[in-house]
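=== Structure Prediction Worksheet ===
Name of assembly: unnamed complex
Input type: mixed (protein and possibly other molecules)
Chain count: two
Listed entries:
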Amino acid sequence: DIQMTQSPSSLSASVGGRVTITCRASQSINNYLNWYQQRPGKAPKLLIYAATSLQSGVPSRFSGSGSGSGTDFTLTISSLQAEDFANYYCQQSYTTPWTFGQGTKVQIK
Amino acid sequence: QVQLQESGPGLVKPSQTLSLTCTVSGDSISSGGYYWSWIRQHPGKGLEWIGYIYYSGDIYYNPSVKSRVSISVDTSKSQFSLRLSSVTAADTAVYYCARTLGPGNGIDVWGQGTTVTVSS
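=== Predicted Assembly ===
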């Protein structure tokens, strides 16, 4: 299985601040990398697919990038809003079994 | 818009079979190109993809549960189902049904999730 490792596991940030979460795959996954937001008690919500594509309806303060290596990816929230405090997960869909990172908790500073 | 809704028992005894159903509304489950998945989340933990059934009928299971799992579809009822046999406390989780257009598209529609507890 492809292992997905997120860092950090948690972070504290202020409203209006910039947040960066990284995700590393144990092997190249090309750009088959997706990002999700999960609020407490809710189902995950797709934010970014194919590493850089913004899902319809998702605010433009969310963006995704890849390093070009096929293993390192980043989710950036450019100006954190109150509703963005949540858990974030990356997921590879390059090969089955599709696997998720362990999550990053974004907390209020 | 497409909506998914899980249903099934919230409590299952150890060694028994967990059975859940996902009802799809707002679209045909047999419309082209979609993968219909089951995903679970252990309490306070991350997400684990269990498997999918493709609109064509192809099925794939995560090797971690392959010997115990079965996913099927009933197009007449617009439902797909999960059966997980010989459950233990380790199968206690929130179970989600979900939809994706394919590997390059992410999982764009999720059910609200249903909590299943394995306990005697």
